Amino acid sequence: MAAAEDSVDDGELWHTRLPNHAVFLRLRDGLKNQSAAEAEKSSLLTRNLLFGLSGDLFLWDGDGSSFLVVRLRSLSGGGEEPSLSQYQKLLCINPPLFEVYQVSLSPTQNHVALIGQKGLMVLELPKRWGRNSEFEGGKSTVNCSTTPIAERFFTSSTSLILKHAAWYPSEMLDPHLVLLTSDNVIRIYSLREPQTPVKVILLSEAEEESLILNKGRAYTASLGETAVAFDFGPLAAVSKNVFGQKGKDEVVAYPLYILYENGETFLTYVSLLHSTGSIGKLLGPLPMHPAAEDNYGYDACAILCLPCVPNILVIATESGMLYHSVVLEGEEEDDQTSEKSWDSRADLIPSLYVFECVELELALKLASGEDEPFDSDFSCPIKLHRDSKCPSRYHCTHEAGVHSIGLTWIHELHKFLASDEEDKGSLQELSTEQKCFVEHILCTKPLPCRQPAPIRGFWIVPDILGPTMICITSTYECLIRPLLSTVHPASPPLLCTREDAEVTGSPLRILAETPDSFEKHIRSILHRSVANPAFLKSSEKDTAPPSEECLQLISRATQVFREQYILKQDLAKEEIQRRVKLLCDQKKKQLEDLNYCREERKSLREMAERLADKYEEAKEKQEDIMNRMKKVLHSFHSQLPVLSDSERDMKKELQLIPDQLRHLGNAIKQVTMKKDYQQRKMEKVLSPQKPTFTLSAYQRKCIQSILKEEGEHIREMVKQINDIRNHVNF
């Protein structure tokens, strides 16, 4: 138990140590040196100057034009107390001359885009090595090369503003950046040629752009017909006709959804696989179902495509409305020949089916003196950010705080689209029961009298205790808040899992997965529509808020706690108590049934024993009767004067046996004789007799005389040899 507590404490160490790190002290000291005009200017823009990579946290320091890198792993280790003053500084060799309001990591995780309204610059991350895999072995300051993108273009066009910028989502190609400027043009730049766009997408006609108003704004911009944001969808296979090419083959491209300020959405396809690249025809505006008179708002500001198939678009407006739309193939009865679509050869364009609408509480709605909600006209642009770890969740940042939205119905929608049956009732039931989860993480404008204080960055850290959001406030305070565990990515299937219809699951698991399970019922009761976010205290220490607004804020928080927490917990408690009482009654009845079954089993067992004894006795009696019957039949047949057929057959067989024995004896004798004959033949073959020679007396005499003569001849020769030897030696 103690070991488990120690592991939990080690997992929460970096939560308590990170806000006290020296990096935030340094950034707060930089704020003190700013003038009032600079501070007021910087506080009006929502920023995102924070991102994470491989357990490291990167914070952009605008004064030093550098990244401050903090290792979260060093803060979460147990044992020795880590130093809260250690960090690395990634210094730009060529610092940006514009103010950076957003940083974005490339898909290859080797470059970081420094995005501003008057320019864009790419920083190349240095190499890592060493024990802790730090940049350049752990140096305190590391120089990083930077590449300005479209520098000549922004320098020559001073009136243009960079509205939106993003990386081209491919990880296999060289890094490319996609820029949307205020002249209603999308330009794609490559890091190999940072000053010349690879592709250009014109979003408006030349005649309309030639009409310039007094303040230098285009005529289309005054009507809201200018693009404000875009986002890429997952890779898809499209026909060559989309790119204006002939043929029925398909090519792989990324869908690019472009959002206009009037709420219209356009679609084009981009493919940079080849050196020339391909840009599809501009399709749109995409029809939205069900149709609305106001076209779902005229103040659209952001669009996000969730990484799923079919694509799910999130469209945000400045009034705090979020529209979740499913992109499906268009139908022929839809109005596909829109005046805005200036390509008459366009095929059937997709349609947007609005699944649900969510209204965010940008500024807290406080109750007035008559217990009525205070209507606030506060509105601000919203930035949408996808969650890298959970595809069914995304996050919203704006001037008044941070929201987290989880779409729990995506899995059910995929199951509905994958099923062959056309059950429209299940889809309607899904739309009524499955709602998204909205979590108000941070509120920087709790009172109407307070000015909004937009955050400077946020990041989602995947922790063993669950996903955690790190928020950096306008005064460089670090807030760490855990996210709801209700929305989580689906676990990948195990290798041992198999689809077998005969395998049955646990009854408890089957009961928990039923649509009307008690657990889901309790979850629906405890589901909160409104939550109390973390309130950010005002940086203005001299000015105190009005007591009436403070009382309204406290009343609102108390009401939310009472209605959304205590009341729902009481309802859940009553449901659980009612269910417990019902289960106790069922348990009592089941125990009675169990005792009755035990008594019945005991009586059946005794009856089975008695039946077994009777069976053994009956079996023994049956065997005795069978033996007696055999004896009776044997004696009866033996006393019959006439032989039976079987006895006659046996008599014939006995009479034939002596003849058969005689024939067998003769055959045995013949075989024995043949065996002896063969054995004698084999002995002659195995031991042959040695040949003998006999000489006559004359022959022996001749041989002896010859041998005698030869002996004398040899003796003479030996004597001669000895004489010669003696003569030589002398």
Question: How would you summarize what this structure contains?
Answer:
The chain has about 725 residues and is an alpha+beta fold. The chain is about 35% helix and about 25% strand. The radius of gyration is 49 Å and the shape is extended.
Would you write up a description of this structure?
- This protein is α+β, with helices and mostly antiparallel strands.
- Helices cover 35% and strands 25% of the residues.
- It contains 15 helices and 33 strands.
- The strands form 8 sheets. It has a 5-stranded mixed sheet with strand order 1-2-3-4-10. Strands 16, 17, 18, 19 and 20 form a 5-stranded antiparallel sheet that branches.
- Strand 23 and strand 24 form a beta hairpin.
Features:
33 strands, 15 helices, 730 residues, disordered N terminus, five-stranded mixed sheet, five-stranded antiparallel sheet, alpha+beta
Write the layout of secondary structure elements.
Elements: H1 2-11, H2 13-17, H3 22-32, H4 36-42, E1 50-53, E2 56-61, E3 66-71, H5 72-76, E4 88-92, E5 100-105, E6 111-116, E7 119-124, E8 128-129, E9 134-135, E10 141-144, E11 146-149, H6 151-156, E12 162-167, E13 176-181, E14 185-190, E15 197-202, H7 206-209, H8 219-222, E16 227-232, E17 236-239, E18 250-260, E19 265-271, E20 278-279, E21 288-289, E22 300-306, E23 312-317, E24 321-328, E25 351-359, E26 383-386, E27 393-398, E28 401-406, H9 410-418, H10 424-433, E29 437-443, E30 457-463, E31 466-472, E32 478-482, H11 507-512, H12 518-526, E33 534-535, H13 547-638, H14 645-686, H15 697-729
Parallel strand pairs: 4-10, 21-25, 29-33
Antiparallel strand pairs: 1-2, 2-3, 3-4, 5-6, 6-7, 7-11, 8-9, 12-13, 13-14, 14-15, 16-18, 17-18, 18-19, 19-20, 22-23, 23-24, 24-25, 26-27, 27-28, 28-29, 30-31, 31-32
